Amino acid sequence: MPSAAPTPNVLIAPDKFKGSLTSDAVARAVEAGLLEAAPHARVTRLALADGGEGSVAAACAGRFHTETVTVTGPTGRPRSAPVAVDGRTVLVEAAAICGLGVLPDGRKAPLTATTRGIGQAIRHALAGGADTVVLALGGVATTDGGAGLLQSLGAVLARQYGTPIAPGGRGLADLHAADLTPARTALAGVDLVLATDVDNPLLGPNGTAPVYGPQKGATEHDVRELDEALAHFVRRLEAAGVSDAARLARTAGAGAAGGLGYAGMLLGGRVRSGADYFLSLLGADELLADADFVVTGEGSLDEQSLSGKLPVALASRARRWGVPVHAVAGRCTLPPDRTAAHFHSVQALTELTDEDCANDSALSARLLTRCGRTLAERWAEASLDRLALP
């Protein structure tokens, strides 16, 4: 009589497929296919985020709850945005306040978009008694070096005749006098965590304007203008007695979220890997300890993925538990010898269709369901092979 098929414990923990599916939608699609082929499997879904869009939702899948704040959006209009709260810890998602996805009518404003709403959300957190503020950095429409954040926390950033500089990166070019003392005082005694996996400095060819400006609508001329304005910002801070202004501008992560990382550092914030922060927050290690195999993924597996983005960070943790990890991706630009160190298999949707799945969420979901079936069939076949060994 043949042995009963083993019952696998499967952890499905992907990042979002940007522009197509949320991380939870990816997980549900893979789960549907896996349970079609292996209805006896025990599946745990874990929607992940690394500091960009979806960070509040990911935190609230754990022990946090959502509160809504009214803040200034990227173009100056008021908007309601969620923050995640757990006791005296508040997580602020930059993308939910000044992100590309919240631009009115989707119209980009690379030179004038502001981070003022981030500071307002922090003020809300402080008024509620927060002693730890986590800034989830990523997905923003801004390149203002965090100037708007600093101003809304009380910092003085003034033009020659004392009036405040205009919003956005362009406004930094007119900066004449600066005083960060009120903002630093507002955050005295607060643990400010900067959750990001971006290691760009603020300035130069690898800085925030050249690398991320174009996706925010910046032309070549705009990129030069923004980089020069940010450099002027640093010089004026030095002239105002901020002795570590230039050093922090060179620090990895200063260029995160259009320079929000830099502003956070000026306020005493400490950079922490967004991927590792959320994996710890959501109890990934406890789930990995009970898993027989893991399915993770993201929209694009590429060179940036290898620098510690969520799927690779999760695979590193899984390796400690001896748990195999399989990946699904919208596309994969890495050769097999680059992915083999992290994943037992990679299924890319672009290899399953000639259609444009990146802009078709329904098609992406169907293909991910197919990927789930394939993984279940491979698991069952491998398990039977092991049972057949003498």
Question: Quick recap of the structure?
Answer:
This protein is α/β, with parallel strands linked by helices and 390 residues long. 37% of the residues lie in helices and 18% in strands.
Structural notes for this entry:
The chain has 15 helices and 13 strands. It has 390 residues and is an alpha/beta fold. The chain folds into 2 domains: 9-47 and 284-388, Rossmann fold (3-Layer(aba) Sandwich), CATH 3.40.50.10350; 55-275, Glycerate kinase, domain 2 (Alpha-Beta Complex), CATH 3.90.1510.10. It is elongated and about 75 Å long. The relative contact order is 0.15.
Write the layout of secondary structure elements.
Layout: E1 9-12, H1 23-37, E2 42-45, H2 55-60, E3 65-72, E4 78-86, E5 89-93, H3 94-98, H4 116-127, E6 132-136, H5 147-152, E7 156-158, E8 177-179, H6 181-186, E9 191-195, H7 208-212, H8 220-239, H9 245-250, H10 260-266, E10 270-272, H11 274-281, H12 284-289, E11 293-301, H13 310-321, E12 325-332, H14 336-339, E13 345-348, H15 361-388
Parallel strand pairs: 1-2, 1-11, 5-6, 6-9, 9-10, 11-12, 12-13
Antiparallel strand pairs: 3-4, 4-5, 7-8
Going by CATH, the homologous superfamily of the largest domain would be Glycerate kinase, domain 2
Distance separating the two termini: 16 Å
Estimate the helix proportion, in percent.
25-40%
Number of domains: 2
Low-confidence stretches: 384-390
Could you give a short account of the major beta sheet?
6 strands, mixed
Q: Regarding CATH, which class of the largest domain?
A: Alpha Beta
CATH architecture of the largest domain: Alpha-Beta Complex
Instruction: Output the structural class.
Output: alpha/beta
Outline, from the CA principal axes? Answer: elongated
How many strand units? Answer: 13
Q: SSE order in H/E notation?
A: EHEHEEEHHEHEEHEHHHHEHHEHEHEH
Cross-sheet strand order for the largest sheet: 3-4-5-6-9-10
- How many distinct helices? 15
- In angstroms, what is the radius of gyration? 23 Å
Kindly estimate the percentage of residues that lie in beta strands according to DSSP.
15-25%
Task: Give me the CATH fold name of the largest domain.
Answer: Glycerate kinase, domain 2
Mean pLDDT: 92
